[in-house]
């Protein structure tokens, strides 16, 4: 690896670290909440009393509210499954194109 590539990689790593750490430094004392919580708060402000139409199935099964860490874990698992499916489909499309290009070269 040349010195130019090492400098580029080091610079990119510094930028990534700044993008990760920067928001935490800029938003000291900020509270992060989910969109569900924000939505219910806005409805209560506008219409008064707000009661959800249903409770999540997992909360019924465990007779209580899910801890935030478990909710985050389930969200990450959903995201991982979705990304895996998208990556698989995109890979299949790329391979299909390679096979059709190869077949077209052989028949020509």
Provide a short characterization of the protein structure.
The chain crosses the membrane at residues 72-94. With 108 residues, the chain is mostly helical. The chain has helices at 3-26, 35-47, 57-62, 68-107.
The radius of gyration computed from the alpha-carbon positions, rounded to a whole number of angstroms, is: 24 Å
Low-confidence stretches: none
- The assigned structural class equals mainly alpha
Number of helical stretches of at least 4 residues: 4
For the report, how would you describe the main beta sheet? Answer: none
> How much helicity do the residues have?
over 70%
Q: Would you tell me the overall average pLDDT?
A: 84
The number of strands is 0
Shape: flat
Order of helices and strands: HHHH
| Distance between the amino and carboxyl termini | 41 Å
Q: Strand share of the residues?
A: under 5%
Report what the structure shows.
The longest helix has 40 residues, at 68-107. Helix content is 77%, strand content 0%. The model has no long low-confidence stretch (mean pLDDT 84). The two termini are 41 Å apart. The relative contact order is 0.04. With 108 residues, it is mainly alpha-helical. The chain crosses the membrane at residues 72-94. It is a multi-pass membrane protein. This is Cobalt transport protein CbiN.
């Amino acid at each position: 690896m040349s010195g130019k590539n090492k400098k580029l990689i080091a610079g990119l790593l510094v930028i990534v670290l700044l993008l990760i750490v920067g928001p935490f430094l800029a938003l000291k004392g900020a509270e992060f909440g989910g969109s569900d919580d924000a939505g219910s708060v806005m409805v209560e402000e506008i219409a008064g009393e707000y009661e959800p139409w249903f409770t999540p199935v997992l909360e019924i099964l465990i007779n209580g509210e899910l801890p935030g860490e478990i909710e985050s874990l389930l969200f990450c698992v959903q995201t991982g499954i979705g990304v895996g499916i998208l990556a698989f489909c995109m890979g299949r499309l790329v391979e299909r194109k390679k096979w059709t290009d190869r077949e077209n070269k052989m028949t020509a």
